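Sample entry (397 residues):
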Amino acid sequence: MKTVMIVAGESSGELYGSLLARTLRTLWPEVRLVGMGGERMRDSGVELFSGISSSLGITETFSSIKKLRESFAKASKILREIAPEVVVLIDYPDFNFRIARIAKRQGVKVLYYVSPQVWAWRKRRVKTMGEIADRVAVILPFEEEIYKKAGVPCEFVGHPVMEEIEELEKAKTHEAEHFRSGSGTRAPTISLLPGSRPHELNKLLPVFTDFVEMSSNQFPGARFLVPLAQNIEVDQFKEHISTLEEKGVVFMRGGALKALVSSDMAVIASGTATLQSALLGTPLVVVYRVSPITYFIGKIILDVTHISLVNIIAGKDVVPELIQHEATAKNIMAQSERILYDEKYRESMLSSFREIRELFSGRQPSRRVAEIIGDMAGWGYGKAETVTPDDSKRRNT
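Predicted structure, serialized as tokens:
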């Protein structure tokens, strides 16, 4: 039986895993998919042996160690007992690098999908990737050259969030755009995305509460939407959520894209959602807070001038970044007023968004990664479909 193992440890990677699983089942209906992920991967046909075990930083990791160890033991057992033809490891390097080494010892081919941020820190991981992965599929355009220079088989396949966005637009399910009031309004619709990790919500929900309170004076009648990642255990944040709901904030499970496309602007924890907002054309403010020790260590080891994907891809300041002590309601308000009332500034941001979108438009990352898996496993490209010139070009790259 054709078998593929997919390991995703965080919410964004779980989305990519679900899109890939759906594509694999389309090309090879008989394929068995096992892995680590969340509800979206399960709904896409993956037999889960463990749920998402995300963590970040130094102090934030301690509380997750037991869960990580249990997940690792289960993954190792699956590799030994099932022996899939290919294991697909999605980002999550500290966990997945160990899984890759076990897979290699078992003779299982390894496709690393979504590179760890080797361009930001721990650059020696490029060499490690060459040792543990048979092939690498990256989702940011500048990453391909990094690996190719190191002699690691690598391909830029595009970004899965663009795939999801194009699907949303094709289905015309973004009627909610009518909630947008447009720039210059006194009653905007604003999305607040606090991240998908527990420590992110603990740090940012209080800031968002202060911002919502301040907005009652600055933006009378403003609407606020908070889409929460599917893996979040809502009960942990009941007090924060209740306070915000009393102020009229609307919470939803999932639905980040629909919330963003419905909004005049967004305030977003640094992560994949910042790129989603840019690709949808929704202006944003990036915010982030971690523990003081994590921040201190990060300042020492990170080799980046920006933290948001939007600014990193653009190579310049496109969206404002409010980090650590700067992530306050007052500063968010100042940046929000600029976005909503300064038409020149807003249009400059949107123009940069359009340039970024051009880098990702028209690609089919899940399809291409599925084809790579089929090639690695010796299955060919699956069920016959029309091959466009662009498809052929990507296959021969």
